[in-house]
Amino acid sequence: MALTLPLGEASDQDKWDNGGLERKRQLLIEIVLRSRLTALMVDGDTTCWVLEQELLRSYGVQTLGVDNGRDAIDLIASDAAFNLIIIEKILPVLNGLEVTRQICEIGMRCKMLAVTAYSGESERQAFLATSVDVFIEKPLDLEHLVPILRELDRQ
Amino acid sequence: MERNPIRRQLAIMRQSLFDQGHVDEQFVQLEELQDDANPNFVEEVVTLYYRDSARIILNIEQALERKPFDFGKLDAYMHQFKGSSSSIGAKKVKAESTLFRECCKSGNGEGCMRSFQQLKKEYATLRKKFGAYFQLARQAGPVETASRPK
Known about the structure:
Chain A is α/β, with parallel strands linked by helices. Chain A has helices at 12-17, 21-27, 46-57, 69-77, 96-106, 121-129, 142-154; strands at residues 38-42, 62-66, 84-87, 111-116, 134-137.
């Protein structure tokens, strides 16, 4: 399955479409993305997945989610392109560390965030050693996310 | 000051969730994601949490019945549970999850069992409080927001 979502300007219609996207901007940290960003979430926990997806969608980011490491690798290997990958450590089939390594081996270049229930400094170091860009203890928060979205939007 | 008595009661109930330490600022994040398109988002996510986490609780219970304890497996289960609990802002539940994981790391089986019992209490207490809160929220109805131009 090939899935490449084109980058482009988020239209005014898109900004209104999510029934209250503009209202969210009043409450959440205000940013306006010029580009249509895409994100892949890799998390076996549905609650976390739903929340992260909703948070990203509230900023107009198109999201796709998988609940295990193998599906994430298969997706990347089939030339699916994303601006951002959010990955948990403990996953069914393949753990997050191994998924991150394989994504790097495939040659996928994008921002990678490890968003995981914190286990200690060794977990942080293990993830950072796999070329994850940022390590975030769950839950994914705006203080981390907004600067990252701004950075991606500038690229 | 909220004039509607149900809304006033709802606000008091909500505040007590924070004051009693049951939820943290992440719960506010959930509320901020709720809007006209997702008017029941918070309740839906909390319901999802309790549905999915029940399976993890059961897994941990079963793992605690097997001796010797597989601390690695217990820690992995609690890692996932902690992640989803923190994502809905379940503060006390998250704190107990952290304690449990510390017991796993130090191989403290008794500590794991005590911590797990406390965790289940906090989990059940919060579930009850959420149940009452959302029931009242449904009675109160949605908060009116300005309509957006099409």
